[in-house]
Amino acid sequence: MYIHFFAEGQEHPGESFTNWSPDTQPELFCDGFGHNIVELAKRLEWRGHIVSFGSTVPDIADLVVFFKYQLAMGVLDSIKQVRASMRVPSVHVRSDLPWERQKVFEADIEVVPNHNSLRRSNQVFLLPLAQRGLLESTRQIDEPIEQISVKCFPQNVHVDFKLLETNLRERLPNVKLVLDVHSETSVPPNKWHDFREVDVSLIYRPINWGGYSDSRKPPTRLINAWLAGTIPFVQPIESYSNLVRDGKNAFIVRNIDEIVGKIKFLNENPEELKNVRMSVLKMKDIIEPLVEIELWEEMFYSVKNGVKISANRNIKLLLGIVSSFLVRMLSRLKLRIVRE
Q1: Cβ contact 198:147 at 8 Å
Q2: What CATH code is carried by the domain that includes residue 199?
Q3: Which residue from 194, 200, 193 is spatially nearest to 177, judged by alpha carbons?
Q4: pLDDT tens, the chain, 340 aa long
Q5: 202: in domain
Q6: Which among 284, 256, 64 is positioned nearest to 158, based on CA atoms?
Q7: Coil/strand/helix, residue 117
Q8: Is 143 exposed, middle or buried (0-12, 13-18, 19+ CB in 10 A)?
Q9: Which residues of 209-222 are buried (b: 16+ CB within 10 A; e: fewer)?
Q10: How many CB atoms neighbour CB 21 within 10 A?
């Protein structure tokens, strides 16, 4: 199967893609496009498929894949994307894109990262791929909690790190807090894959952060925490709370007092901590089959074999451009009238 991934400018992975191994170089291509598209392409290539990147779809391609950021922002962009999707079936990896943001054409399949995101008949739910090159926790089931880890981009550190560190030092001096953020200047840029010394994965994302993506957030960090054999501490947002059993295989926390208090409780109740860790290991067995590349491969095959490109579909795409253009022009005219 020949799968083309729509990419322009800095999105294009370039020559680095040729010899890249996600498992031995996990710190590369670690942004949203890299994780959702570039890694997906590499793993499909490893399974024998032909993959390519660019804004022009090769004549022999079987389908084209778009990522969430690639929305048609202007007429020229719209035409470019529609042309890319007219001859072959298209797949849109939607991730946590807001509902109101739509392409000027409807993809044959839209992939969403959780059940909360399902809205239309052309959408399917697939969990994102797990953390590449993952090194599991080596902590024993009967050991007390000694390390909490926060793995994310700097802009996503939504917990008061210094205040949490102070609280831990005062109330739990034997528990270490490790902040592992991505930095282009550090070598390596991140160690998101390394959970070997981690007991608790703190996945702290405030409710209504940004105001729009709580229920659509891909549960990637929660999945990684389980697969690594660590205990997830998560904020009570839908994409996390709908998957966890609070107090069993994860803990829902709302503030620093709850984070410190629940760790203190577990360390003072070793049998309870042991039960939680056993539940985490069970979740690992449940999650592993749901994040395999084979599920994505099967989805692509179903699109390739089940979608027939017809004149009606092409007309629908062209009408999408026209309607999008008219809407934008009317909006600008309305804004101009208001200003005048």
Answers
A1: yes
A2: 3.40.50.2000
A3: 200
A4: 999 998 888 888 989 999 999 988 888 887 788 888 999 999 999 999 999 998 888 889 999 998 876 554 555 555 566 666 677 888 989 877 776 666 666 788 889 887 777 888 888 888 888 888 888 999 999 999 999 888 766 555 556 667 777 888 888 888 888 776 655 555 556 677 889 999 999 987 655 555 445 667 788 889 999 999 999 999 888 778 888 999 999 999 988 889 999 999 999 999 999 999 999 999 988 888 888 899 999 999 999 888 544 444 444 444 444 444 444 554 555 444 444 4
A5: yes
A6: 256
A7: helix
A8: middle
A9: eeeebbebbbbbbb
A10: 12
Residue with the two structure tokens 């039960």: 275
- Residues 187, 249 within the same domain: yes
Does some domain include residue 161? yes
Establish if 140 belongs to a structural domain. Answer: no
Predicted structure pTM score: 0.79
Q: Do 151 and 281 reside in the same domain of the chain?
A: yes
> Quick one: 89 and 165 in the same domain?
no
Q: Which domain holds residue 195?
A: 147-290
Contact present, 228 and 197 (Cβ < 8 Å): no
Residues 330, 286 share a domain: no
Q: Residues 135, 149: contact at Cβ < 8 Å?
A: no
* Domain shared by 333 and 277, yes or no: no
CA distance linking residue 18 with residue 193, whole number of Å: 22
> What is the 3-state composition of the chain as percent helix, strand, coil, each rounded to the nearest 5?
40, 15, 40
